[in-house]
Design goal:
Length: 80
């Protein structure tokens, strides 16, 4: 038996670091928005259009469509 020990414990140190907007360096406190590119932004810049978002939306959208398509197909079959 091949036992692969893949236990990855993420040590979350409770350090209260104030998040800053990656675009304007505004302190976010509770108003922070986490973008899909793993960066935090203020209410003005959290949109991917408002900052140079590195998140691959094209790939994500393609994956999303691939995931949702079988559901649509299954629904069509269900009707019949
Ligand atoms: Zn900002
Ligand atoms: Zn982004």
């Amino acid at each position: 038996m091949n036992t692969i020990n893949k236990k990855q414990k993420v040590c979350t140190t409770t350090t209260t670091t104030v998040k800053l907007c990656m675009k304007c360096n505004k302190k976010l406190h509770t108003m922070g928005f986490k973008c899909k590119c793993d960066n935090y932004f203020c209410i003005k810049h959290h949109h991917s259009d408002s900052h140079e978002c590195s998140y691959d939306y094209k790939t994500a959208n393609k994956e999303y469509l691939e995931k949702t398509n079988p559901i649509i197909a299954a629904k069509k079959i269900d009707i019949i």
